[in-house]
Amino acid sequence: MDQILYEAQNGIATITLNRPEAANAQTMALLDDLDAAYTRAARDAHVRVVVLRANGRHFSAGHDLKDRWPGPGEITLEWIYDTETRHYLEYSLKWRNIPKPTIAAVQGKCIAAGLMLCWPCDLIVAAENAEFSDPVVHMGIGGVEYHGHTWELGPRKAKEILFTGRPLTAREAEQVGMVNKVVPLDELDSGTYELADRIAAMPPFGLRQAKRAVNQTLDVQGFHTALQAVFDIHQTGHGNALSVDGFPILTRLDEMKQHLKQG
């Protein structure tokens, strides 16, 4: 089964995460295929808007930690740094800057690395049952690799979510400006495509310039530099885990699964 589905019609490209049996947990192959889908949409002159959605109950449970990771005693910080640089930080920044508007449609759980899929999108439409969380502080790491928390939530709300590990509801996310629109679950697709259709009717060059203007304003304020700096801080968490007991993140899958089942 393809982990990513792609369809384009009426000026809208739809990219669908397609691992519903695994709550759309991200393998390296899924991320490579997702990058290829974004590249395809960016190069297609007929595509004006890109929608990122997910099949199944949940948008994404984050990284699939069983995927292509060396075992305890075999993993090195250099391997972690190089792998996460490419698949997590660089991909997310690339998707943020594709020259077309992007919309994420989020339902159910969006955990940790799931944020690295929706945050790079320009707009987010959330179902009423959507919950956003980054519980990796439980594993001795200060936050997911694409550390947009402060920019997306504001400093105090970002600290609350990180310090407690609790999920942010769709309505809370809307209140702080992280989510553009909250809709009933059964209206998630229709609400997303209603917005996409409206945007697709706008002049493409104007859309590209508007997106570039906003993103560059954030970059002037330090967004890009801050993400790189915090990514390096993130790696010290891995280094600490390695020095303590051989990377315990690989032994805590049950805890993360339990978090997925709660709430």
TrEMBL record:
<protein>
    <submittedName>
        <fullName>Enoyl-CoA hydratase</fullName>
        <ecNumber>4.2.1.17</ecNumber>
    </submittedName>
</protein>
<comment type="similarity">
    <text>Belongs to the enoyl-CoA hydratase/isomerase family.</text>
</comment>
<dbReference type="InterPro" id="IPR001753">
    <property type="entry name" value="Enoyl-CoA_hydra/iso"/>
</dbReference>
<dbReference type="GO" id="GO:0004300">
    <property type="term" value="F:enoyl-CoA hydratase activity"/>
</dbReference>
<dbReference type="Pfam" id="PF00378">
    <property type="entry name" value="ECH_1"/>
</dbReference>
<dbReference type="InterPro" id="IPR029045">
    <property type="entry name" value="ClpP/crotonase-like_dom_sf"/>
</dbReference>
<keyword id="KW-0456">Lyase</keyword>
